[in-house]
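#struct-help
A.M.: can someone run this one for me? Single chain, 265 residues.
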Amino acid sequence: MNDTTPSLEPRPCAIILAAGKGTRMGSDLPKVVHPVGGRPMVSIVAEACASVGCSPIVAVVGHGREHVERALEGSSGDVRFALQAEQLGTGHAVLAAEAELGDVSPDADVLVLCGDGPLIREETIVKLLDTHRSSNAAATLATAVVDDPAGYGRVVRDDQGRFARIVEQKNATPDELAIREINPSYYCFKLGPLMDALRHVERNPKTGEYYLTDVPALLLAGGARVEVVDAVPAEDVLSINTPEQLAVVDRIYRQRHAAAEGTRA
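D.P.: on it. Structure tokens below:
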């Protein structure tokens, strides 16, 4: 933990989604173990969670699980692994982590992050959790506004500018596709309501998957509070789906850390 990021009490826990293959990477290795700044990218995400006191941290593994588990050996804190044997979407992946969180209170706050997002900042996590707790929300998500939203879920707001739902690109209308506020998959939930809502998520007819992105709208429809934090710089949510995109993120990560070292010097 660095000197500027306090551990948050009571401790949140975390789920890191790390089961996908990443077919466009041109490698048999899981995408999340490819290096950024010389380290497996999933280990950077786990470190960000540990730096704000998350415990336990559950990594949901699937394809090449042994590589992901090896990448997280020696990580700070209580790191556990849950197997998603069949990849049926992000909602299915989060449910796979439930057994590993059996000793955690249903009232606990749980971060849900993706293992291929190594540019996440500690201050973003802190703002997400602070907003979640101060508003007593069941779900809080951070959003970003980007020039090119292609590939991301869009954040749909109502006529008053309040959160309404997340729509995945494959299910979006032309008007929804034009939205530039996107979902970078930085979430905080109350653990119990999250798991309860996941049991009501329906399989998407177009993809056959269970979407975690359906959960905030389900909670909202049930009368729970959902908050949105527009806290994520566009640079932080760059996709990593190809070796070329990996190279861009690696360069940004190295530049950022070189600048931080220069400030401390």
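A.M.: thanks! The helical segments are 41-51, 65-71, 90-96, 122-134, 174-177, 191-198, 215-221, 243-264.
D.P.: also worth noting: Residues 1-5 have pLDDT under 50 and may be disordered.
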